[in-house]
Amino acid sequence: MTIILEGPGVTIADVVAVAREDSVVELSATALERMVASRAVVDLLAAGDPAYGVSTGFGALAAVAIPPDRRSVLQASLVRSHAAGLGPPVEREVVKAMIFLRARTLALGYSGTRPHLAEAMITLLNADVIPIVPEHGSLGASGDLAPLAHAALALLGEGTVVHNGTERPAADALAEVGLAPLQLAEKEGLALTNGTDGILGMLCLAADDAHRLLVQADITTAITVEALLATDRAFADDLQALRPHPGQRTSASNIRSVLHNSPIIASHRDADSRVQDAYSIRCSPQVNGAARDTLDHAVQVIEWELAAAIDNPMVLPDGRVESCGNFHGAPLGFVADYLAIALAEVGAIAERRMDRLLDHTRSHGLNPFLADDPGVDSGLMIGHYTVAAMCAENRRLAAPASVDSLPTSGMQEDHVSMAWGAARKLRKVIDNVRRILAVEWVIGARGVEMRSPLQAATATGAGIALLRTEVPGVGPDRHLSPELTAAERLLDDDRLLTAVRAAGASLR
Fold first, then answer.
1. What is the mean pLDDT of residues 443-450?
2. pLDDT digit string (tens) for 80-139?
3. pTM reported for the whole predicted model
């Protein structure tokens, strides 16, 4: 698959394709023309009065005029000094998304850079030359300065990259792919570093992950409904329509579809002394659905940002070069925090369902902890401990980062978004929720099988059958961690959704 980078029109799917599927990127002829015209404005400005980012210093040093013979040094010095990150490297997919999105902004023609900057960035992506970017350094305003500077440093032939899986000096990797180190002109160092591209890239990837997780959460909920001999009546569409939140109605529809024609559900439909199920069962569409609506809002913000030009100053078509605040990451930080809160609760309600299924006083006839020989065997008891630990971590991670501004740059940058930190912890929440759902799948599947000879619905049965290709069923205690890891891997590979859809479930 080839992504033609026009500048406008980039989608979440494009970012995912480049970052995760290694799609090839090409610049369109229109984007090249746009950048040439934008650069002509900067070249004219460089010969005139002092202009921020062109012929002055940066941040609190904006009042310092830079003579023409020192401006190239200024731009390279900016990149070197801002490449000040620390900590472990961020993930390859995040760096790829960030570089792709920075090239997208340059291609819009509001940054005043020569076309070969964006071309060089695309060469890195296509040749699998991935700069090493430390995790810590971005405050989310002015954008992702340190992470983007580490990426830009590689274009100068400095720093370290990973090329075809091997860590090596950037200069060596550039030479191998036929790319000469860049000599930056006026404005270009600033344009390479002044954007929200790392935050935005992580949000695009998180949106892709979160959608799949929310469908998977509806499937694992349905499996647990069967295992607990719960009812599907609370999920009826006419009841859901009385509270017209779209995510709730979609979640309930998914659960109903997975449970369609379930013999287990039918077995107690008309002879059940229980009046109603616990909230963790009955209210699952309300929680999972609210997270869906939160994701929809986040996607809207992501799409606005994907249409935005993020730089400072901006080079306008009428020849003006104006300072602005478009690099501030608040819109992205807010939704990253909001989505982390919502997904943390998807994990939290799943934990409550598991606790109920493992407690023989509330599981309606199942062995304690679903053990094969209770007392001798502990069953899945400690799997629940692991889930509880991750839920507790998610509660900490759900505390918002975007309210925690710290002033920097001599009080010039006196309010920052902390959106990078919000996006980083969102990724951790997503990983935790995937693991939580994997454990629910393992626990729910064992609970359903312990209801034999009652049979599962066709769709839940397909999900359990898939699990059994990697994870054995009921039996004496054995090393549990590899089995939970295998279930997590099946979720990450999206095989559960494939299996359940193939069994006839309609999932959205």
1. 98
2. 999 999 999 999 999 999 999 999 999 999 999 999 999 999 999 999 999 999 999 999
3. 0.95
Collapsed DSSP state (helix, strand, coil) of residue 474: coil
Region at 293 (left for phi over 0; alpha for psi -120 to 50; beta for the rest): alpha
Q: In terms of DSSP bridges, do strands 160-163 and 166-169 run parallel, antiparallel, or are they unpaired?
A: antiparallel
Q: Which of 369-373's residues contact partners 24+ apart within 8 Å by CB, and which partners?
A: 370/443, 370/446, 370/447, 370/450, 370/474, 371/477, 372/474, 372/475, 372/476, 372/477, 373/476
User: 36 to each of 218, 323, 343, how far by Cα in Å?
Assistant: 50, 21, 44
- Residues designated catalytic: 52
Q: What is the pLDDT of residue 109?
A: 96
Identify the three-state secondary structure at position 377. strand
Q: What is the reported pLDDT for 59?
A: 65
Residues forming CATH 1.20.200.10 domain(s) in the chain: 202-268+277-312+322-406+415-502
- The pLDDT of residue 60: 64
* Domain at 202-268+277-312+322-406+415-502: CATH architecture: Up-down Bundle (1.20)
Q: Give which of 138, 112, 97 is closest to 54, Cα–Cα.
A: 112
| Token pair 């898939």 in the structure block, residue | 466
The type of residue at 12 is I
- C-alpha 412/C-alpha 138 separation (Å) is 16
Tell me the two tokens of residue 256: 């109903």
Q: Is 413 helix (H, G, I), strand (E, B) or coil?
A: strand
| Residue 396 scores a pLDDT above 80 | yes
Q: Look-up: residue for tokens 């929680």?
A: 287
Q: Which residues, including other chains, have CB under 8 Å from residue 95's CB and lie 6 or more apart? A: 130, 131, 133, 151
Residue 397 has pLDDT above 90, yes or no: yes
Strand 129-131 vs strand 24-27: parallel, antiparallel, or unpaired? unpaired
**Sequence-ordered list of residues with C-beta below 8 angstroms from that of 60, at least 6 positions apart, any chain:** 409, 410, 411, 412
SS (H, E, C) 254-313: HHHHHCCCCHHHHHCCCCCCCCCCCHHHHCHHHHHHHHHHHHHHHHHHHHHHHCCCCCCC
Mean pLDDT, the chain, whole residue set = 94
Q: Could you report the per-residue pLDDT of 244-273, keeping only the tens digit for each?
A: 999 999 999 999 999 999 999 999 887 777
What CATH architecture does domain 2-195 belong to? Orthogonal Bundle (1.10)
Q: Is the pLDDT of residue 58 over 70?
A: no
**Average pLDDT estimate for 377-404:** 97
Residue 65's pLDDT band (boundaries 50, 70, 90)?
confident
CATH 1.10.275.10 intervals, the chain: 2-195
